[in-house]
Amino acid sequence: MKCYVKDLVVRNADGEVIVSVDELVVENGGTTSISGPSGSGKTTLLYCLSGLIKPNEGFVNWDEHNVTTMADNKLNKFRRENIGFIFQSPFLFDELDPLSNVTIQSAFNANLSKKAVNERAIELLDLFKVPLKGRKTASVLSGGEKQRLSMARGLVNNPKIILADEPTASLDGRNSKILMDCLFSYHKNHSTTLVVVSHDNDVLSRFINNLSLTQLRETDV
Ligand SMILES: Nc1ncnc2c1ncn2[C@@H]1O[C@H](COP(=O)(O)OP(=O)(O)OP(=O)(O)O)[C@@H](O)[C@H]1O
Ligand SMILES: [Mg+2]
User: Fold this and answer.
1) Please, what is the Cα angle at 193 between 155 and 183, to 5 degrees?
2) What distance in angstroms lies between residue 43's CA and the mean position of ligand 2's atoms?
3) Residue 221: is its pLDDT beyond 60?
C-alpha cells in the first residue's frame, strides 16, 4: 500500500507542536527510515501512520484509506488486516509463553485459520531465534529475545504494511543485522511497505529514503 502524509501536525496538551511533517510518500512496496534525536517525535509519527494517534492537522492516507478520519471500528479492522506494528517497548504478556504472545491477537481475526497462524508463529519464532522450549513465560526472556518476539508478533498476520519503532534497540551488532536481514527478506518476499524508525547508523544505511525529524521543542533529555 502507498503511504501519503500531508501537512501533519501533532500538538501536546499545552498546544506545543511535537511533530510536524510537510509531506511523506512511501510507494507501495517501498521503504523509508525515520531518524531524529530523542524526543523529535518519531514514535508519535509512527503512531499517526498506524492511526493510533489522530494528528491535530493534516492526514495520513494508505492508498485511498484515510486513517486520520476513519471511524474507530473501521480503523481497528484496517489495522488488524493490514498493519504489523513493532513497538519500541514490546508490551508482551509476561504470563504467557512466546507462542501465545505471537498468536493472541489473531484470536480477534475471524478470517484467519488458527492452525495456519500457529504454524507461521512457530516458523517466525524459529527464524528470529526465540527459544520455545524450556522457558515458560515471556517474563524470563532477555531484552533482545523480547524484541525479536515482538517482531515475530508484528509479522504473524502477513501484514501489507510494517511499521517498526527502533526494532534493533536492545540488540548487539550481529543480532541487529540478523533481524534487519529477516525484516528486509520478509519485505521483499511479500512486497510490504516498510517504515522503520531508528537511531542506528547501520540500520539507516540500508535505506535509500530517510525522513529526518528535527527537535521542535525543548525537552529535558
Ligand atoms: N501522549 C503524549 N502527551 C504529551 N506529550 C507527548 C505524548 N507522547 C509524546 N509526547 C512528547 O512528544 C515528544 C516526542 O515524543 P516521541 O516519543 O514521539 O519521541 P521519539 O522521537 O520517539 O523519542 P525517542 O527516540 O526517545 O523514542 C516528546 O517530547 C514527548 O515527551
Ligand atoms: Mg520513540
Assistant:
1) 45
2) 4
3) no
Specify if 169 maps to a domain. Answer: yes
Nearest CA to ligand 1 atom 28: 39
| Burial label, 209 (beta-carbon count in 10 A; 0-12, 13-18, 19+) | middle
Return the residue matching grid coordinates 510494517: 162
Domain assignment of residue 217, yes or no: no
Boundaries of domain holding 180: 3-212
- Is position 220 within any domain? no
Q: How would you classify the pairing of strands 65-66 and 193-197?
A: unpaired
Q: CATH no. for residue 104?
A: 3.40.50.300
pLDDT, tens only, 105-131: 887 777 778 899 999 999 999 888 888
CA 165 / ligand 2 centre spacing (Å) = 7
Structure confidence by residue, pLDDT tens digits, 41-82: 999 999 999 999 999 999 999 999 999 999 999 999 999 889
Note whether residue 219 is domain-resident: no
**7-28 average pLDDT score:** 96
Q: How far is the CA of 208 from the centre of ligand 2 (A)?
A: 21
Residue listed under C-alpha cell 507461521: 120
Q: Ligand 1: residues within 6 Å at CB?
A: 12-13, 18, 36, 38-44, 88, 219
User: Is pLDDT larger for residue 51 or for residue 158?
Assistant: 51
Domain count, the chain: 1
- Please report which ligand is nearest the Cα atom of 164: 2
Best residue among 42, 50, 204, 217 to mutate for probing ligand 1's pocket (most ligand atoms within 8 Å of CB) is 42
C-alpha cell at 152: 515475530
